[in-house]
Amino acid sequence: MVNTKITIIGAGNLGTSLVKGLVESKIYTPQNFVLTRRNTTKLSSFKEIGCEIAINNIEAVTNANIIILAVLPQKINEVLNELKGSIKEDQLVVSLVSGVKVKNIQNILGSTIPVVRAMPNTAIAIRESMTCIATTSNWNEKLPEVEDLFKLVGETIVINEEQMTSATALCACGIAFFLRAIRAASQGGNEIDFHANEALKMAAQTAKGAASLLIANNSHPEDEIDKVTSPKGCTIAGLNEMEHNGFSSSFIKGITISAKQAKDLYTEE
After folding, report:
1. Which pTM value belongs to this model?
2. Is 72 annotated as a binding residue?
3. Tens digit of pLDDT for each residue in 143-154?
4. What is the domain partition of the chain in residue ranges?
5. Has 105 been labeled as part of a binding site?
6. In terms of C-beta density within 10 A (0-12 exposed, 13-18 middle, 19 or more buried), how is residue 72 classed?
7. Which cell locations does it reside in (predicted)?
8. Has 11 been labeled as part of a binding site?
9. How would CATH label the architecture of 6-160?
10. Which of 42, 77, 197, 212 is the most buried (most CB within 10 A)?
């Protein structure tokens, strides 16, 4: 257990998923967290387990060691201007806000406030997130603290801040892309012979197994594909049909379009 007080400003799906994951780690308890949201009724289940729920953002950050910004990009300037002067140099700001650079935050809060960006995905709720972390050179000493936090809820990688928009598309948006692929596989299973719930279970577990193979073997996807494809076999026939219909190119295009869109989510004042 730790005594760190974490305030999450804008505890929507991502913020609450982080709380679930950190509590599940057994290192943190609900009492470590203060959650804010405009509609606090949606946080009632977190209040019931012991989290502190607040409406006033300024009061919420007063005793925090770590302040996590989890608001929409369109709302970040409003929130930062509200908190300006209330956040101190001995507090750490971790921004989960897509498209908002460290300099954008410090332009409002002040250059002496430590700021680190993190881009997790909603799998943090089950401690399976891929979280990308970045900051500017003057706050590199804060990276280990943020890494330690997010390692409790999955894997982490430190990247250059210029890559954070791309990380948003690949990892954060990527959850939806892979879920859509699993959905498509389950629909295919439904069409060929299986009930919908059976097909979904089979598709999801197969996807989990495929990812686990790559991680466990530290291998390339094509190496694992080669192991299950034989000349004139059913696997290569299916793969070729998917490629003829643009499977890989569509997936790649989806990621690049998401990255482009992520760049336009935030407009500086």
Report:
1. 0.91
2. yes
3. 999 999 999 999
4. 6-160, 174-263
5. no
6. middle
7. Cytoplasm
8. yes
9. 3-Layer(aba) Sandwich (3.40)
10. 77
